[in-house]
Amino acid sequence: LRIGVPKETAAGEKRVATVPEVVAKLVKLGFAVSVESGAGDAANFADDTYRAAGAEVVPDAAQLWSRADIVFKVRPPTPYEVQLLREGATLVGFVWPAQHPELMQQLAARRATVLAIDSLPRQLSRAQKMDALTSMAGISGYRAVIEAANAFGRFFNGQVTAAGKIPPARVFIAGAGVAGLAAIGTAANLGAIVRANDTRAEVADQVVSLGGEFVKVDYEEEGSGGGGYAKVMSEGFQQAQREMYAREAKDADIIITTALIPGKPAPKLITAEMVRSMKPGSVIVDMAAEQGGNCELTEPGQAVVKHGVTIIGYTDLVSRLAKQSSTLYSNNLLRLAEELCKAKDGRIDVNMEDDAIRGLTVIKEGNITWPPPPPKIP
Ligand code: NAD
């Protein structure tokens, strides 16, 4: 079968779904690979490197889609792209079926098979190698710290120099899931004093192991809402949490917020009042900007200065590290391809008896199979 890799069309999207190194591995699995000319340009992968890896480079999207049995994408397809998808073809990429019911109908009408990488059952240990949500969250956590460091006017690490003694920067991280933990590790490696909080007490040890200090809310309530995710907390907890965050905000030079609750707007953790209490020159990076933001003053997609504090609400943190994110995303898709093509004969078997494959197959030959039954956890 032929795998097609189109150029991403969403504004500002710099990633490409398959990097040249992975093309060579897909060819070894028996697939033919076509890449749209320029697909890797924004991530620094030139057409020639794709050719050298064994791909055919085609001049435009129409040709690419018309030749592909399987399309590897990053972002959900646009209605135009759905029309380009060959009848009965397979699409692999981020789809977010709950947010895109119309897209699901359009894809089903193409009699497509759709493997939504966002719908992978992440709790299966066997699925971890395919978990693009985790690889992308790790990158955005790292990049959030780099953006903060760039906007901050001082060192992260403490220094004693002939020109003066410099204290380390104080970084507070709200939410210690995959992205938050990556941010903790990165900020600690740069030499900052890192403190972090999460409503799920189980992450405390991980915070410490990455060099941070876990700050507890003085209120007894378990924050796990199932599947490793958070729940909406009681009013009493939220009040106690706000008091603690108000104290942390006054002390912090940098705040990075990552708190999300599946299917709900992002919890508002940093109030305008807290921003006002921060030192001039402080920085907030709100990684929840796209889901409404954890800070009341965030403007999604923008960096703004309010009360002397730079508030960064970029929603393209992974695209700002496009070479790295394309590489890890490609590796996740390669692992999926290996699962689908165990015989290494360039064909795929979408085995609905396999929990991991069942979970991410949201449309099978035109039939919507999302949501899946809960996976059997061994
Ligand atoms: P997420 O992006 O949904 O949320 C980010 C973090 O924000 C979570 O840790 C959450 O608890 C926290 N949060 C939510 N509301 C908050 C609030 N009001 N105050 C403070 N913090 C708040 O989560 P994620 O990073 O995608 O992952 C969540 C969990 O899933 C993690 O524990 C992760 O380890 C787990 N996970 C497990 C596997 C696996 O088992 N293989 C794979 C991937 C992720």
Automatic annotation (TrEMBL):
Subcellular location: Cell inner membrane
Keyword Phosphoprotein appears in the UniProt entry: no
GO cellular component: plasma membrane
Chief place where the protein resides: membrane
Enzyme Commission (EC) number: 7.1.1.1
UniProt KW Cell cycle keyword: no
Keywords: Cell inner membrane, Cell membrane, Membrane, NAD, NADP, Nucleotide-binding, Oxidoreductase, Translocase, Transmembrane, Transmembrane helix
Residues annotated as domain Alanine dehydrogenase/pyridine nucleotide transhydrogenase N-terminal: 4-140
Entry membrane topology: Multi-pass membrane protein
GO molecular function, one term: proton-translocating NAD(P)+ transhydrogenase activity
The organism's place on the tree of life at top rank: Bacteria
A GO biological-process term: NADPH regeneration
Catalytic activity: NAD(+) + NADPH + H(+)(in) = NADH + NADP(+) + H(+)(out)
EC class name: translocase
Function: The transhydrogenation between NADH and NADP is coupled to respiration and ATP hydrolysis and functions as a proton pump across the membrane.
UniProt family annotation: Belongs to the AlaDH/PNT family.
Protein name, UniProt field: NAD(P) transhydrogenase subunit alpha
Gene source species: Ramlibacter cellulosilyticus
